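Q: Can I see a sequence and its folded structure?
A: Here is a first one.
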Amino acid sequence: MKQDKKKQMKQKNNPAQILKDKKDKLDWQNFNFLENLLVFCTVPGRSVPKESRVHFRITLDSENQAICILFEIDRRNDPLIRNQALKRPDYMSVYIDSNSCICTIIEMKGKNHNSLENGIEQILKLKEILQTEISNHLPSKLKIKYQGILLTPYNSQPPLKKIAEIASTDFIILPIQYNNKAELFPYVSRKNEITEISKKYNHQEITESTALLIEEILTTRALPKRIPDEYYSKNFSNSQDREGIYINYLLPNDTDYITLLSNTTLTEINMEENEYMKEIIEELKLLNLIDRLAIKFSNTQISNYDN
């Protein structure tokens, strides 16, 4: 009986099984806003279906040494912004290279003028929430450039006056009009300028690059529960006013996993030596994230947890 119970506990906390059983459902009991965003809201492939006659994809340029992660914000019956009174946009992308970290908030709208006005408010609301959450939970060294895209079909009339007023505060929202599947990589991978607000969308065909290992892990390998190992026992507190994020990620070999712990002071990655460690460190250096996120590495043995 005791052996059966131990076997059940191992299966319950087996990382590969946890990932396999992962449900597309936010978990507010165990995760905060940023953790729910990172664990449940990523969009593998960076491509979205049509809505309000518009749709888009983001194709990572093969010449860029960068990562680009797309997040779904307005999850219909399971939204990331839970307060129904607050406006919420559709998507958000985060682009990171060695020089920049750009967060682009994307709202898709049809031709209705009032709806277009609301789209601006939806973008602004998420920007406000993100700034607060990141200030409260991530290292202050991390500098993020925020911007927005209002994606609409041809013949719509974006509220250019309001967009120009907002641009005077150094927050640029580009009104992009296109009836087919828009390619947004050129607009999310750099800082957009106020002079581009009145320019027409320029469609480009881009060759997809092979994603960095870090992007694959962040996009597809986040575990929906925490592994109760020795590192967890020493570093995690489930208090109501808990600061920071604590997420486990399963590595591609489906055996090893890493822990990402971050707060306003530092970011720590706990992992045992394995075939992916060198590649992960090299990619973090490539993206200049070790300095920007104040990353340090630890190797707490996972002695209290047996795969």
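Q: Show me another, different protein.
A: A second, unrelated one:
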Amino acid sequence: MGLFSTLLHIYKKSQADTINELKNELQQKRGFTNFSKLDFANSNYQNILDNEVYSKHAIFYLITQTHGNWTTIIELNVNVDNPFYLYDLTNILSKQLDTYALSFHLHDDDVLYYNLDKQGESLDGYNSDYQYFLTEPADKEEVLSQRHIPESFSIILPATKNTDGLNKILNEGYWEAFDNNELDENGVPGEDKYFIDEQDRFERIGKYLEIYSKDDYPFVDWLGNLTKLSLSDCYLLKAER
């Protein structure tokens, strides 16, 4: 099985504000009634993962301190009846926090999605391989209706970056093959040159946006990078119904 990773980045809002609105949404709209902060440090994180995150009936989110302009929520585990996922909270948290919210979901190392919302308005969405879950090849108009709009990032891009550079990363693989009329009869890229390592793409997007820093984006494989995150400054939220 490949890597699954779900993240939500909040623009120019503090860790405390993010936690408060996250709890409010979980309580008021999602039926959670019991919240606790777990002691999660570099010295004990494996015990917490084994004895809480991977074994208890709850949702677990790790909320980082602010890095640059971004506070990050990492979905560590969802183990509840009638589950929902962190990306489902993108729009409402952008509204309640009055800011931009950017969620990512990497599915089995095969396909990458994002949603960018601002103050409750959906600005852009991305699907790195629109054909992935389809059983029949999509027609051109359907594919075009799913095209991403990187210009939506213009306000939140670092000063040294531009939407053309972001678009180049986003278009690699499926979208480049689509533009070059090189999707095969099944609607997928017909040549090996269009193969993309989606984890690598995800990391390059994070670096381009400088969500953590211009040289690192440790959130995709969060489990392998936990010791980079100064866990004593993070907030591990456990939410139970």
